[in-house]
Amino acid sequence: MADVNPGDRPLSPHLSIYRPQLSSITSILTRITGNALIVAVVLVVWWLFAAATSPEYFAMANGLMTSWFGDLVMTLALWGVWYHYLAGLRHLYFDAGHGLDIPTATKLGWGVIIGSVVLTIITLFLV
Amino acid sequence: MRYLTARKRAEGNGASGTGTAHHWYMQVSAVALAFMVPTFLYIVGSALGGTHEEVLATFARPFPAILTGMTLFVGVMHFNKGAQMMIEDYARGSMRRGLIMLVICISYATIATGLFALAKIAL
After folding, report:
1. CA distance A13 to A8
2. Which of A69, B70, B96, B114 allows an S-S link to B91, with CB 3.0 to 4.6 Å?
3. From CA A60, how far away is CA A47, in angstroms rounded?
4. What predicted TM-score, i.e. pTM, was given to this entire model?
5. Which residues on chain B are in Cβ contact (under 8 Å) with A63?
6. Looking at the predicted complex, does its ipTM rise above 0.85?
7. Do A37 and B116 make contact, defined as CB atoms within 8 angstroms?
8. Which among B30, B72, B89 has CB closest to A11?
9. Which DSSP string corresponds to A46-91?
10. How many inter-chain contacts (A to B, CB under 8 Å) are there?
11. Which CATH class is domain A22-126?
12. With 0-12 CB in 10 A as exposed, 13-18 as middle and 19+ as buried, what is B45?
């Protein structure tokens, strides 16, 4: 193990030299939505914490969460959840060794994009 | 003197040193979240926009409280390990270690705050 050089390996996704295509865009969006969702989680936890603390604190947190800006953030987060949900299922399917040929991967990519928008709209209407 | 051969030390552990444990955790938590998230969205989505009393009443019931707590824990730990993967892809050295520590701190602080709030409402 003495000849291993751990400090000088290339970093993996070469975003700047990689031609954008459906599979790469849907993949990077999975990462972006997944990591951005922590903002929504922190907001919801803050809102719950305010509810547990006092009516005044809740009024403040709830006012922000139900303002037009809060609605915008929560709607974007909802799309982020559904996108990450479907892309995650696709990831599990890929990991199991299925759907890796280009036509199927392309269909799954569009399925994830269109499906996430449809599920977001359904959730907004139902909940 | 170490009795293990270099091959034996490395076998199955890969560059991470922990083998497939990280990837396996992501798969298990992904499947768990696939089951929990739709109901979680329904519970939180319905509670959002309600009055203070309605919100307290929702999370005082066992099922919404337990499911919200579980989804929060599994979801944030899934974030924790996913964010670590992103950091390992784009940063190296001290920056990498520092960012991973920061993500771990944010994750546990978020979980602790959420569980505290749920416990306080439910009990």
Report:
1. 15
2. B96
3. 9
4. 0.88
5. none
6. yes
7. no
8. B89
9. HHHHHHHH-HHHHHHHHHHHTSHHHHHHHHHHHHHHHHHHHHHHHH
10. 93
11. mainly alpha
12. middle
In chain A, where the domains are located = 22-126
B53-65: pLDDT as tens digits? 999 999 999 999 9
Residue B123 in contact with partner chain A when CB distance is under 8 A: no
d(CA B47, CA B102): 31
Residues in chain A: 127
CB within 8 Å: A45 and B30: no
Q: Hey, CA dihedral for B18, B112, A63, B59, is it positive or negative? A: positive
Q: Are B23 and B51 in contact (CB under 8 A)?
A: no
pLDDT tens digit string along B26-50? 999 999 999 999 999 999 999 998 9
The CATH topology of domain B21-122 is: 3 helical TM bundles of succinate and fumarate reductases (1.20.1300)
pLDDT tens readout for residues B67-82? 999 999 999 999 999 9
Mean of all residue pLDDT scores within chain B = 93
Instruction: Record the tokens describing residue B30, joined without a space.
Output: 């992904």
Nearest CA in chain A to B80: A35
